[in-house]
């Protein structure tokens, strides 16, 4: 109630809360708390109401991952934004709003930066009363049928059942969301009926797949690509999954395939660049086949974290920051430090870098095949010049506003085959002493 009244500036608004008809309802015992929660809920924006009520899909005392919740909200269209604001940013804003209003509690962040929270039992009861038959949390073998109006399901653990009998249960349902919460079975398989669920937007099978024997979880069925409306696919920590369906490019609405921890993936499906709605991709494994290269990331507007594996075939790398943007200098230094290229790299470009010093790998890494390097940065260059570029032929420095002097340490011949040197718009540069050009 405090968060509701805090936003009311006029006396009439406070009186409106006090005189609400909701207080006229029976309010014995815990019902009084639920009435107060209902009143707080009624003052939420429509999209906040949807996001909160949808969390009834989780069981009581369930530790909900922030990113998982945001993915569910996005997939079901609860979050919309105007202008240039990203959906994920709006999702984070929504989560923070619900925390601030005390609908979420016990918010914790682990060492990896992953945030999780819980809902109080009373808040969970409120959410369930709102969603009623639209969202159902079920335990298999304890229900013989489900409400026809239900579109969102989560399945909880039934230790006494060896195999889920869900094919008949959901046969006539038009599913939108399906989540296995903590189900364990040694012979569990992804249900065959899923391929016919053309309206399915959220599929979380991670709890199933990471419990399967090694021989059973190497890949997903190709039929899963028929889920044209699927937006969120949770495969987190499926440690033995070595490939994704080849036709993944046809899942045009896919926004968040959570493959965090899928460390056995050998390559990505071809032409993932066609998934233009993709907003989050935690891993990209560069492959040798056509359409499996790093170029597939070029037109994708990705957020969050991205780990690029098998970069040994990468020959050209360009790192660019937005001019005059809000890039944090320390954060930019951490980012560029994490992007250490393979020694086969031939071309390296760094543009508008807001950091105050070069990455450690640039000072220490031996790049014997580097032919061209372009540095277009805005702050002074740090480093002792010990890096060796035995193949570098062309070097360009532009807009290095803080550079006043550049001299080679100890007269060492750092660029033995340098043919071209361009220094432009370095307005404070007063003196530079370079070694002779070996060729020209």
Automatic annotation (TrEMBL):
Cited InterPro entries: Disease_R_plants, LRR_dom_sf, LRR_R13L1-DRL21, WH-like_DNA-bd_sf, WHD_DRP
Classification via Pfam families: LRR_R13L1-DRL21, WHD_DRP
SUPFAM superfamilies: L domain-like
Protein name: Disease resistance protein RPM1, putative
GO biological processes: defense response
Keyword Repeat: yes
Domain Disease resistance protein winged helix: 57-127
Claim: Ribonucleoprotein is one of the keywords in the record: no
Alphabetical keyword list: Plant defense, Repeat
Residues in R13L1/DRL21-like LRR repeat region domain copies: 305-398
